[in-house]
Amino acid sequence: MNSPSSxxxxxxxxxPTDLDQEYMTVQETAFTLRCSxxxxxxxxxxHRELHSYSGRRIIxxxxxxxxxxxxxxxxxxxxxxxxxxxxxxxxxxxxxxxxSR
Length: 101
Hints:
Elements: E1 24-25, H1 26-33, H2 37-46, E2 52-54, E3 57-60, H3 62-74
Antiparallel strand pairs: 1-3, 2-3
């Protein structure tokens, strides 16, 4: 039985009801910024000034999301290059028919 607030819901990005809303949850922010919820939670743990709480729920406002976006856009400071994007499925062999190469 899946309840509306099962644990899997907390780990998946969720589209916000309105892209221009003032406050978003971590899941909505991850969807908007095209990153994983786990990456965003780790990032916010290190940058506590970029979020606030509504009860026990972590939320971000417009300014927080703009700052997070700028950090992601600047790239990975450890390696001096952009943060890698998720690869497409072009090289996935499982999607090809067995006889074709």
